Amino acid sequence: MFEFTKEKINNQLSIEDYQSFFEKISKKEIVEKPYDEEDFFLYTEANFKRSEKIKTKIELNKKLYNELNEGIAHWTWILITEPWCGDASFIQPVIEAICLAGDIDLKIALRDKNEDLMDAYLTNGGKSIPKLIVIDDQYNEVFNWGPRPAELQDQIENLLKTGGSYDDKLKLAHQWYHKHGNEAIQHELLNLIKKNK
User: Fold this and answer.
1) What domains are defined for the chain?
2) For a surface tag, which of 15, 31, 72, 94 has the fewest beta carbons within 10 Å of its beta carbon?
């Protein structure tokens, strides 16, 4: 288990700093590894446009909104992610909207610059992101979630077990997120908040 401290949390990016970093990469104003590779740049450029578009369409579930305003102000949400991650381009805007509505402190931990944190939150032995960790004011974990909604995760695991390709996985994920993503993410997080208050 990862040992959170005030210093470790404060060393992570604010959502504003992350958004600036994300945008600069998408405009080639930052060209560091792995964004010096064309594929990573193209993923990131598409992800930035997608996440910005999703932000304009998010409507928060009323039950979730009510839960956000009842007894969780002392929680900090830490999202392990990277701009190149396609799943994160669908999920991060929803988590950002939830934190904004609940006046929750959201920190962004870049996966590739926080190996010890990522290694504490592997999924089936892999460094799948995004991964959300919620901690209380004593730096204890309240819950964690990710790297994607449970239904989609199951579908992807089944697809890969039956020989599906990386392109098949991308197609399945994009179709699923467009149909269910926003609501499914909010529903799962609502249940976790209610269970762990």
Assistant:
1) 6-196 (3.40.30.10)
2) 31
